[in-house]
Design brief:
heterodimer, A: mainly alpha, four-stranded mixed β-sheet, two-stranded antiparallel ribbon, B: globular
């Protein structure tokens, strides 16, 4: 392992990539702090408004957004390098013979690639700790969940890049394939708003961003966790097949297709699991506890039909708020969006039914046009012939903070200079030893 | 097959080794749309060094890669100590391999590589002897990036030979050494090859091959021209006092004429 560690950590490129990532992340962090401070100035005057000042959404997620970008753009290069360089140096085969199997070599390379790319994760941790020291509020648990999502992304990027490295001959080829694979997920997400990519819309279930989104909100979703794990395992399987020797090309291709199909099957199964855990501070991603208990006590199946098309802002609001909270309480809730079946929805074509939200609990049916979560939950209980339980949620006070003056200067210096410079200095020192006679 | 001149049944086997360690039978390697290596048969015995020589593009490297399992051999069979090799783990148990023009990771120090290779070997005493034989101790603290070509090759040889597999397959192992170094390296390799390890090495410098090899396989255009010890090759070339270079040129010319 020391050999593999040396290849990754004594290489200048590892530290330069980490320093570049630190700049990207730092920039996102400072922008987030400035925006959060600006909002906090007015929020501090109003208790109601200050409840909306959520550091997870306002600070942690934008900071980790920089990490996303760095992982997608630089991660493939660093990860693939660990394996591709052995191929370019013509040592891969001999190394596999010495180790006993290509899978062992690939596993060792994967482990060090994870550590190498993991350097990038150090930056947001340092910056968020500095934010807390500067007077900001960071909840350890929900921030860890968000960071955990990024670690899953890291795992996926590394595994995909390993597979790319195993199936190609050079680092340039492997890094290109790895970056394209990572960007494909972004393209799928962009499909909704970009006509040229609309044909990718049907692949939305395969969007990595979609699987990772709940982690960013402090939720631990079982299905997406398994989906990402299986995706990473598929990448590792493909890497092992691609790195194997003495097989006919056709046999290799057939095995690879088998691994892909097996992985897709497992991912598809994982995608149906809707159980999730709310690890946000004050459980603010959930409905009030009594309502949750009441919903879970309802025996009848619950079905919600929403007549809103994808482009409607109310649709996005109900999906990200009321429906997400309802599914957290009752993962078996069936949600239907009949208008998604229309190929070319247009405002002009909307009939009187448009905007209806129909709640069915057993035989009971209620209807509304409101997207309010309280309204929807009330209708569910009404349809079940019951009254709404106490609607009392633990108070989330919000954490507005204005970071300015010397505290801001200190954070700016840390984000733009301190962390990147430290990474560069460590990298140069380690790399210099490699050329010191 | 032992010591038989391919395409020339009159050659003689004069090797003295006991058991066949590596048995290569009719191996053929097909790459893209053509045969790079075809119908190669030879064997190597415990304790001997078999040199593979041939002009550029003769298929030496491809053959060695097929032997160690890094390339798919479309035809033929390989046996090590009588056992057929089927899975990669069989190859890994049987061979250590030094690829041609391989570059050790410049990020690592010699000590890191030596420790890594030693951790994969079985015997401490072999590792110690090899380290001394290859004069690695003064290099241990150096980063690989600053090694000379000869030093680099000594480290690479150590990493290959220390594994103590039944067969060591070396692709151009001696090209980086000066004549003085070569003498001690030859002695050490000969010592290592006794009594159980067989060494199969492609050697570009015919004088080196003549000096170190017990038997020699001559390849041309992916096909074997002859295989045997120097005496038998001389006999095949009908020139009893010729150097290996003379034999090589003569046999290649014969092969060209025949084709």
């Amino acid at each position: 392992m020391r050999r593999e560690l040396a290849i990754v950590f004594r290489a200048r490129v590892t530290w330069m990539a980490a320093a570049l990532a630190a700049l990207l992340i730092g920039h996102g962090f400072i922008l987030a702090i400035d925006l959060f401070s600006a909002s906090s100035r007015s929020a501090l005057a109003s208790k109601l408004q200050s409840r909306e000042m959520d550091p997870l959404a306002g600070i942690v997620r934008p900071t980790l957004g920089g990490l996303d970008l760095a992982l997608v753009l630089l991660g493939p290069l660093l990860s693939a390098r660990a394996l591709s360089m052995e191929k370019e140096r013509r040592t891969f085969g001999a190394l596999c013979l010495a180790a006993g199997s290509p899978a062992r070599v690939i596993a060792a390379k994967t482990a060090v690639a994870l550590l190498g790319c993991g350097l990038m994760v150090a930056t947001p941790i340092v910056l968020l700790a500095a934010y807390a020291l500067a007077g900001g509020h960071i909840d350890l648990l929900e921030t860890s969940v968000s960071l955990g999502g990024e670690l899953l992304r890291l795992l996926l990027v590394v595994m995909t890049s390993m597979a790319a490295a195993a199936w190609t001959d050079t680092l340039a080829q492997a890094a290109t394939v790895g970056i394209v694979a990572s960007l494909t997920s972004w393209a799928i997400d962009a499909a909704e708003g970009f006509a040229a990519l609309a044909w990718l819309g049907g692949a939305s279930a395969w969007s990595i961003e979609r699987q990772l989104a709940p982690f960013g909100k402090g939720l631990v979703p079982v299905g997406p966790f398994l989906w990402l794990f299986f995706a990473a395992a598929t990448g590792f399987g493909l890497a092992c097949v691609g790195g194997s020797f003495a097989q006919r090309a056709r046999a290799k291709a057939i095995t690879a297709v088998g691994v892909l199909l097996g992985g897709a099957l497992l991912m598809g199964s994982a995608g149906t699991i809707r159980h999730a855990y709310d690890w946000t501070e004050a459980r603010r991603a959930s409905l009030p506890p009594r309502a949750v208990e009441g919903l879970r006590d309802l025996r009848a199946p619950i079905e919600i039909t929403v007549y809103l098309d994808r482009d409607d802002s109310r649709r996005r609001q109900i999906e990200s708020d009321a429906l997400q909270k309802l599914v957290l309480a009752r993962p078996d809730i069936v949600v239907r969006m009949p208008l998604d079946a229309e190929e070319h929805p247009s405002e002009a074509g909307r009939g009187d039914d448009y905007g209806r939200i129909v709640v069915r609990v057993g035989d009971g049916i209620r209807e509304t046009r409101s997207t309010s979560r309280r309204e929807l939950v009330t209708l569910i209980f009404e349809a079940a012939g019951q009254t709404l339980p106490d609607w009392v949620a633990p108070a989330y006070p919000g954490f507005p903070v204005v970071i300015e003056g010397s505290r801001r200067r200190y954070l700016v210096a840390l984000a733009y200079a301190g962390v990147p410079t430290l990474l560069l200095v460590i990298g140069l020192r380690l790399a210099r030893r490699r050329t010191a006679r | 097959m032992t010591g038989v001149g391919l395409g020339n049944p009159g050659s003689i086997d004069t090797t003295t080794s006991s058991t066949v360690a590596l048995d290569v039978q009719s191996v053929g390697v097909f790459v893209g749309s053509r045969w790079i290596v075809r119908d190669v048969t030879f064997d190597a015995r415990g304790g001997e060094l078999v040199a593979i020589i041939g002009p550029n593009g003769a298929g030496k490297t491809t053959l060695l890669e097929a032997i160690v399992g890094l390339r798919h051999a479309k035809l033929g069979s390989l046996r090590v100590n009588g056992q057929a090799l089927r899975h990669f783990t069989d190859f890994a148990r049987s061979f250590s391999f030094l690829p041609d023009a391989a570059t050790l990771p410049p990020e690592a120090t010699v000590r890191t590589l030596v420790d890594h290779a030693s951790s994969l070997s079985c015997g401490d005493h072999v590792a110690r002897a090899l380290r001394q034989g290859l004069a690695l101790d003064p290099l241990l603290g150096k980063p690989v990036a600053v090694l000379s070509r000869g030093e680099h090759q000594r480290v690479a040889l150590y990493c290959t030979l220390v594994l103590e597999r039944p067969i060591a397959v070396l692709d151009e192992p001696f090209s980086a050494f000066d004549p003085l170094q070569l003498r001690s390296i030859f002695d050490m390799v000969r010592e290592l090859a006794a009594p159980t390890t067989a060494i199969v090495a492609s050697i570009h410098q015919l004088a080196d091959a003549e000096q170190i090899a017990n038997r020699i396989l001559i390849l041309s255009g992916g096909r074997p021209i002859a295989f045997g010890d120097l005496a038998s090759l001389r006999q095949m070339a009908r020139d009893g006092g010729a150097s290996l270079e003379g034999v090589f040129v003569s046999l290649l010319a014969d092969a060209d004429r025949a084709s």
